[in-house]
Amino acid sequence: xxxxxxxxxxxxxxxxxxxxxxxxxxxxxxxxxxxxxxxxxxxxxxxxxxxxxxxxxxxxxxxxxxxxxxxxxxxxxxxxxxxxxxxxxxxxxxxxxxxxxxxxxxxxxxxxxxxxxxxxxxxxxxxxxxxxxxxxxxxxxxxxxxxxxxxxxxxxxxxxxxxxxxxxxxxxxxxxxxxxxxxxxxxxxxxxxxxxxxxxxxxxxxxxxxxxxxxxxxxxxxxx
Length: 224
Description:
- This protein is an alpha+beta fold.
- It has 7 helices and 13 strands.
- It folds into 2 domains: 105 residues, Urease metallochaperone UreE, N-terminal domain (HSP40/DNAj peptide-binding domain), CATH 2.60.260; 70 residues, 2-Layer Sandwich (Alpha-Beta Plaits).
- It is 29% helix and 26% strand.
- It starts with a strand and ends in a 9-residue tail after the last helix.
């Protein structure tokens, strides 16, 4: 059995869209917990078994390409089934006085922090991963009843284009039973990446596969 050790590209990037449109794609369907692993064996839609052994803690993204055969125009790619995300919209606070904004923001932070839920803030929205049953999260939000903050659940696939790689890990990694939580270091321009990312950055460039944070760049757009 062939063992796949690197990422060739990503279906969502502009340079691969044309090739993908003309190719036969065998998707390896992963849940978000398995996608956090660097070593696993899984079957594609064609029932072919694939062994993956990336560097430890490498970040697989939805659409990552493990193999492309230009002769047969066949692609082996990753498809990740992401859980829903709780999205709290704070845009209504913009019309409030600064003191009121601070008060309501602290109340929301207390509600989320008291449950030990990780969160990512983008613009006027707060994204919280589904770490417990959805009904439990709804109950917590109803109990606190924070005025002027609208919340709801959104599919992870719709949220992920707005996120940087380290934010994706925060929302979809480290919350499952098999997750591998690890520390990261703050870097210039607000990016955080792990020791393994630092060591593999040059290797990935040499191999032609950009790091996960760069592979996500083309998919990131401004929040509406």
